Structures are given as structure tokens and as C-alpha cells.
């Protein structure tokens, strides 16, 4: 019995590993969303405004907006090479998105109905993947290459989840960048 369970676990692990190595192609029945329509800048712009704090989060949109706002701050610090603070904000942003996944939704959507008549770009998987990508780049830049690889693998898993739900040029570009980094 133990041997059968071990073999089953081994086979499942093998297939998961194979799935992590190959690029994900978008489902044939869904068109790929162009980069002009769905991109990081558009998501950041849609979620500007009143800052969301963890204490204020009650609904899906609060968790999402809080994560996006922290990501926007982290992006500015990343560009300024303020790596420790950027890393902290990327992690905090991912905390918002993780809570969103645990309690609410886990799929990306190009036209998420925020409330009646208002739709937003809803890409928590891609945003988390981009956070992990940047965190890996920070780790590599600070001499921790060994920790960067698993971080990029986590990012690639999230990109694949996004592409399965909502194929986008943004996701395909992120996937390609991650695959390139993982080959090095």
C-alpha cells in the first residue's frame, strides 16, 4: 500500500514538473487580449486613489486595490534601486493577493464587474507573478541567485494559471521572460 502511494505521488510530481518546464499556450477558444488593452500601467492607473490599508479591506475589490497600490509603490522603489523596501512592498502586495485567493477568487479576468456598469482589469495571478519576477531580480542583484530560481518558478506557475483563465499578450511576455531567466 505504501509503495503504491509512493508511486502515485512520484507520478503526480513528475507530471507537475513537466508542466512547469514547458510554456503554456492560450486556450484555442479564447482570443489573446492585446497588450494595449491589458497591461501593468493600465491596472496601476485603474487602482489609483484613496489608499487601502489592511484594516480597511472587506471586499474583493479592497484586497485587489490594496495589492495593486502596494505594487505601484514597490515598482517605483525597484526602479530607484531601493531594493530592501521594494522587496518588503512586493511581499505585502502578494499578501493582499494571497488573501484574495484564499477567501474569494483565484482567476484572472479582463472585464471583472467591480460594481454595476464598472468593469476593471482583474489580473491577481499576473500581478503576483510580476511581483515574484521582480523579487527574483532583486535577489539576483543582491547576490542570492539560489533563492531567485524558486521565486521565478513560483512566478511561472502563476503566469500559467493566468493564461489558462485569461490569455493575454502581457501574460505571454511575462512567461517568456521567466523561461529565459530560468534557463540561465
**Which bin fits the share of residues in helices?**
55-70%
Which overall shape is indicated by the principal axes computed on the Cα atoms?
globular
- The fold-level CATH name is Serine Threonine Protein Phosphatase 5, Tetratricopeptide repeat
Provide the CATH architecture: Alpha Horseshoe
Overall domain count: 1
Spatial strand order of the main sheet: 1-2
Structural class: mainly alpha
Terminal Cα span = 41 Å
Succession of helices and strands: HHHHEEHHH
Q: What oligomeric state best describes the polypeptide chains here? A: single chain
Q: Give me the Rg, rounded.
A: 17 Å
**Average pLDDT figure:** 85
Q: Going by CATH, what is the homologous superfamily?
A: Tetratricopeptide repeat domain
Total strand segments: 2
Provide the β-strand percentage band: 5-15%
In the predicted model, the low-confidence regions spanning at least 5 consecutive residues are: none
Protein topology:
Elements: H1 2-21, H2 40-46, H3 60-79, H4 83-103, E1 109-115, E2 118-122, H5 124-141, H6 145-165, H7 169-183
Antiparallel strand pairs: 1-2
Describe the structure.
Helix 3 runs parallel beside helix 5, helix 5 (124-141) runs antiparallel to helix 6 (145-165) and helix 5 (124-141) runs parallel beside helix 7 (169-183). With 184 residues, the protein is mainly alpha-helical. A hairpin with a 2-residue loop joins strand 1 (109-115) and strand 2 (118-122). It is built from 7 helices and 2 strands. The protein has a two-stranded antiparallel ribbon.
Amino acid at each position: 500500500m505504501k509503495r503504491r502511494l509512493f508511486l502515485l505521488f512520484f507520478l503526480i510530481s513528475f507530471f507537475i514538473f513537466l508542466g512547469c518546464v514547458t510554456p503554456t499556450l492560450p486556450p484555442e477558444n479564447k482570443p489573446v487580449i492585446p497588450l494595449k488593452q491589458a497591461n501593468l500601467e493600465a491596472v496601476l492607473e485603474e487602482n489609483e486613489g484613496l489608499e487601502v490599508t489592511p484594516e480597511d479591506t472587506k471586499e474583493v475589490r479592497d484586497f485587489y486595490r490594496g495589492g495593486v497600490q502596494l505594487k505601484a509603490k514597490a515598482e517605483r522603489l525597484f526602479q530607484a534601486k531601493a531594493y530592501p523596501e521594494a522587496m518588503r512592498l512586493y511581499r505585502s502586495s502578494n499578501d493582499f493577493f494571497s488573501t484574495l485567493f484564499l477567501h474569494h477568487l483565484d482567476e484572472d479576468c479582463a472585464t471583472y464587474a467591480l460594481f454595476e456598469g464598472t468593469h476593471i482589469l482583474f489580473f491577481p495571478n499576473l500581478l503576483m507573478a510580476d511581483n515574484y519576477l521582480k523579487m527574483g531580480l532583486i535577489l539576483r542583484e543582491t547576490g542570492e541567485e539560489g533563492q531567485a530560481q524558486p521565486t521565478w518558478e513560483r512566478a511561472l506557475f502563476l503566469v500559467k494559471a493566468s493564461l489558462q483563465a485569461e490569455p493575454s499578450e502581457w501574460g505571454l511576455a511575462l512567461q517568456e521572460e521567466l523561461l529565459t531567466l530560468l534557463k540561465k
